[in-house]
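Trying the structure run again after the queue cleared.
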Amino acid sequence: MTPSPIAEATSDPTPEGDGTTLGWQASLSLGFARRGARTVLAERRARGPLTVQRPFYPEGDVCHLYLLHPPGGLVGGDRLEVEVDLAPESSAMITTPGAAKFYRSLGPRAEQHQTLRVRDACLEWLPQENILFPGCHALLNTRIELQGAARFIGWEIQCLGLPSNGERMDPGRASLHLRIERDGRPLLWDRLNIEDANDLDGPSGLRGMPVTATLIATGADDDVLRLARETLVPDPDTLIGITRIEDLLIVRALGLASDRVRNRLTAIWAGIRQPLLGRPAQAPRIWAT
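Done. Tokens:
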């Protein structure tokens, strides 16, 4: 079947946006719908430097899509907004070809806002990590709105500094927000504020580890919790905690290297995908490049 055409695609490359702010003001709105035997990207609205590659269908019906931010990073004054909407019975997996970078700022804040709406549909949200450079001033806000029997597996990985170069995010400021709800009822609200070096250390906080991550999956039971825990192997450089609140599986990670944290989360995702979504693990092709 030939996918239906994208309803609308527009672009405004003007970096000043409304003329009252500095930096790139970019937005991207994506709508997915079921068309016959597969999910298609039925709607796309874009302004500024945010876009997507054409959809891939390695599993036949699930729409695999890659988000692209051509500048490669955000500086003070930049604001990115991404909205994703899945209509009933649609299924999509969304990832990115590389890490998002938040560079040093002379004062203005760089912002990234993401709203994911899943309406009796299935979304896998698997972006690569955000790298927050020393001296950055960043706000990252992700809101996940589930309706009805929506299913979701997703993660967020934050790399605070450049650990491969021995550089901490010091100085640096960041406010990290993650919220997931179903039918308006909150399932998980997270907020992490980093104002100075003290917030990077502390035995009850980040313990001096530069990488922090959270994986969330809906529809979990005790068997899924067991499967997720069975993927864990001892690693002194990566701390993993896994729990379940009602049907919400929550994985927390702290680590010294983003690739090692991402590999651990990928193993958990691969282990729980079949029982939660009825599909064997099918990693995006971009991860292999």
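The chain is about 10% helix and 45% strand. Worth checking whether this holds up in the mutant runs.
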